[in-house]
Design a protein that fits this description.
515 residues, alpha/beta, Rossmann fold, 2 domains, five-stranded parallel beta sheet, 18 helices
Length: 515
Amino acid sequence: MKRRQEISCLVDRAVNRRLFLLTTGAAAAGLAGPGPAAAARSGKMRLRVVYALHAVKQHTADWPNRGFDFAPVMERINHALAQAFPDYEFRPATASGPIQAEKIILGDVASGIDGYIVVQMNNWNLVVQPFAATGKPVLFVHFLYGGTGGFLVFNSRFLRQNRSQVGFISSSNLDDLIAAVKCFERVKPTGAAADFAAAVALVRRERTPGPGDLACLADPLSALSPEETLRKMRESKILAVGYPGVSLRGLPIIPMRMLSFGKLNAAWKAADRDQAAAIAEGWRQSAAAVEGVSDETLASSAAMYLGMKKLLQENGANAITINCLVGFYGGFIHAYPCLGFHELCNEGLVGACECDVRSTATMLAINAMTRGRPGYISDPVLDTTTRRIIYAHCVASNRPFGPQGPANPFQILTHSEDRQGASVRSILPSGYMTSTLEFASGRKQILFHQAKALANDPDDRACRTKLVAEPVGDIEKLFTQWDQWGWHRVTVYGDLKEPVLALADAMGYELVPEA
């Protein structure tokens, strides 16, 4: 995640330079066409609609999923725009990266384009940055469960940079997009784009519902004192497998050991296959549904669980995090660890995704503080039209109140992005207060927000477990921190505001309210 943000920053600087050269050169050359001034006199609104994606038919493992067909989605958006604005001229295009984006911009220099609508369809395509650098009004649109990661990170950078000509929409309702597009009319008469973001923000806030009933079901939680929590954190240990993924920086108080993929693969190979088959059968019997996952894949996942458990025991550790996507796609490991993580978290241990050591350390701190409640790493999604945050990932415990607490239903499905292996959809309980946080040792900060769990979204796009919740506080503020903290968050059931604040004081950390 950090590397992706560094790349984004470098692209921004390079794009600004290249666009200056391209656009000034094109103007000097007198490219054929009516020219911006003539187009403006015509009075017709011309907007370029750019879809940022890998390909119309997705061929890579990414959100929404491999094989996803974007054509119907783009057709629906194009049709809705044409119907709502019959006097506008919309020019659709696709781009997978900054070079294609710059070609589109160069072609638009002499055609009187009034502004850009950039729809982030896949996660990390660096497409919106060149359009934001043109100085023209840009409406940055989030395709939920598709381009979420890039949208959140890129958009929060625009907000931090105070890009007043870049407005944004993060909504599952096309009517919200239509309402935002009307804001282009406010800047066309003068050609000044400086107030475009403010106009879009006003529309977005007006269309976001107010808070619902945030009263929650009773959830008695006796948190450990900060001193006891810190003691248990010191007694913990993280195994980080594979080269660093999202974040290698955990918490200095928690020891960590790096292990190779080879070590993990050897432990998987050595696992007792009869024992693995018995565990796999137990999962099959316990799951509310098993879809697309063979007996062989289940048994291999169980062997991975046994291998991870052995490594934890051999190293005196209680947490393991694996650079699973690199390991699996690179052929270094041969089973996804998702079901194994699920089982470890149910037992009061920690299994964490993507070699995200920071989130793993956060899970350990939560586990200690709450006497065993599992944290849930997710890639959150924000939807203003419902005033919801959706915590999405392919791993989750089904014992959110701890190993001795009640179990909720779960399903075993393929890993969402590539439709391979085995992963978990946990149907998490509704009506309870949740706390979401991340520790950052370098800044000595703890990011924190809360939300009331409301439902589980079964949408087939993106990750399998999707806990739907209503944030406590200002949903607009939730758009601001992603470029500083990355996409992952860790959620736990329970009202942890006071215990986390007390722990922050004991550690000398600052609590940063995210909402």
